[in-house]
């Protein structure tokens, strides 16, 4: 599928949030590469800048997943730069009568915009998307320091995380 500059997962029911405040929460767009998307992600994990081609290819791959993959960004209404981002992936399982599970990933708020409730708003929007898709639960991995942030977003601690890095 040829990627366009249309919002990813535009059919996801993930409508733009325009509540008149400083940030506009909406799906990722191709033009967001030049609005600071990579700089935001670099605050989450080592993430060198992407070329336009690399970004376009990955954007197209994710768009092809439709509403099963949603990347939301928060655009600063006064500057047009991105101040936050987060993703949710809907996993299709066999168990629970072919149940669906939402995975929240890569939540980040720019250092200059933290502490104003933007992270919580992003996470709640991602969770709402998973709920509307019919997921029976939403899960995520985080460091122990973020327990209280995710508790504020409605999550409770469950099990432990295991990892194997290559
Ligand atoms: C699944 C994942 O992606 S895990 C990775 C999470 N991302 C990161 O660690 C990247 C670096 N950190 C960040 O980008 C931000 O600090 C975030 C996303 C964790 C939080 O974003 P913010 O916009 O600052 O959070 P927000 O203002 O919505 O905070 C909501 C509540 O959580 C609390 N909170 C926020 N960050 C933290 C924290 N690091 N530790 C403890 N509590 C926190 C706030 O005090 C607030 O509580 P309050 O309502 O009582 O005041």
UniProtKB/TrEMBL annotation:
Pathway: Nucleotide-sugar biosynthesis; UDP-N-acetyl-alpha-D-glucosamine biosynthesis; N-acetyl-alpha-D-glucosamine 1-phosphate from alpha-D-glucosamine 6-phosphate (route I): step 1/2. GO terms for molecular function: glucosamine 6-phosphate N-acetyltransferase activity. Its main location: endoplasmic reticulum. It comes from the Eukaryota. Pfam families: Acetyltransf_1. It is a peripheral membrane protein. Residues 23-166 form the N-acetyltransferase domain. Homodimer. Belongs to the acetyltransferase family. GNA1 subfamily. This is glucosamine-phosphate N-acetyltransferase.
